[in-house]
Design brief:
By secondary structure, the protein is an alpha+beta fold. It is built from four helices and two strands, in the order αβαβαα. The protein has one domain. β1, α2 and β2 form a beta-alpha-beta unit. The chain is elongated, with a radius of gyration of 18 Å. The two termini are 33 Å apart. This is Alpha/beta hydrolase. InterPro entries: AB_hydrolase_fold. It comes from Catellatospora citrea.
């Protein structure tokens, strides 16, 4: 999770600089994310306080319920796949 915290600090610093340059002190972040990026963005919004700086989170193809292969990993159905 250390990288996640570092990335959130970069995003917060970028937003602060943008607010200064644009003269819009209440500007918010709009995030468009795909796949795992959607999970990371959601984590930032929900767990790292990003909701205070967030206007919208749009995700595409984000595996909110996990990946099919990961769910099958410990089942007899996955055995032939593992050996392929």
């Amino acid at each position: 999770m250390r990288n996640q915290t570092g990335r959130s600090q970069v995003a917060e610093r970028w937003l602060s600089e943008f607010r200064e340059r644009s003269g819009v002190p209440d500007a918010k972040v709009v995030i468009l994310a795909r796949g795992m990026g959607g999970l990371l963005s959601r984590y930032w919004v929900e767990k790292l306080g990003g909701w205070t700086e967030w206007a919208a989170l749009i995700t595409l193809g984000t595996p909110y319920r996990g990946a099919v292969r990961a769910r099958m990993a410990n089942t007899p159905v996955a055995e032939p796949l593992a050996n392929a």
